[in-house]
What we know:
Elements: H1 2-27, H2 30-45, H3 55-76, H4 99-109, H5 111-118, H6 122-133, H7 138-145, H8 149-164, H9 171-190, H10 193-199, E1 200-208, E2 220-222, H11 224-232, E3 241-246, E4 249-256, E5 259-269, E6 272-279, H12 282-287, E7 290-291
Parallel strand pairs: 1-6
Antiparallel strand pairs: 1-2, 3-4, 3-7, 4-5, 5-6
Helix pairs in contact: 1-2, 1-3, 2-3, 3-6, 3-7, 6-7, 6-8, 7-8, 9-10
Amino acid sequence: MADGWQWLAEQFEGHRGHLREVAYRMLGSRSEADDAVQEAWLRLSRSDTGAVENLGGWLTTVVARVCLDMLRWRKSRREEPLETHGPNLVMSRENRGDPEHEVALSESVGLALLVVLETLTPAERVAFVLHDMFDLPFDEIAHVVGRTEAAARQLASRARRRVRGSPTVPAADLSRQREVVEAFLAASRGGDFEALLAVLDPDVVVRADRTAVPAGAPTEVRGAPAVARNALAFSMRARFAQVALVNGTAGIVAASRGRLVIVLIFAIRGRRIVEIDVITDAERLRQLDLGALND
């Protein structure tokens, strides 16, 4: 019995890395992915796997179902109020765990993609991740999401369209917008005041949701120097932000553990930013049309 238990544990450890990758892409959170993998181990330890021919596939299905349940629970929760400290241009809520490791994981997948995945329904997200990222056939995905094979295909197709987004400007204009927004984000991350001034119109204005500022604080900042100083104050948190498609144009999204917490929408004239809208209100965030920009 002990030898059988040890063999099972060794087999599971051999699949742990893959299972963690599956769970992370579904959940966007390192800690939640670890929880899902641990639950898969508990289910494995309580199951009779004697007739299982493909243990890796069996475990992937189990993890996917666990993640689906977690996503459904997440969607049913009431949105938590954001705790912010001023009209933060590139901020995120404090992360639990190791921030450096969380950033590395986000970058390996694409933080913008994780944020867009968060806007999908749980079943759409599971179908898209399993098929488009891990090449699982739709007949197996159908068992995970509890739908027919045709319905599973439709789920993945709808998710794919959402992920790609729909630009509302010509490709050349979108490319120019992206260059300007990327320059703004790079300057914020690097703490480069002069580089920020270079991409900001002298009369730039930032308007933030009331939820983004402390009680009684102004929701509007005007002038390039003031806006640049504000961006520099949160340069460390800019690591958790990435350029994405927002309502068809280039914007910035920031997330905590894969969950969208702030979006920046830009108005650009020529190669200068003239307006920035900072959105943190949960209801407004849900109404945004987000997409991952292709590299």
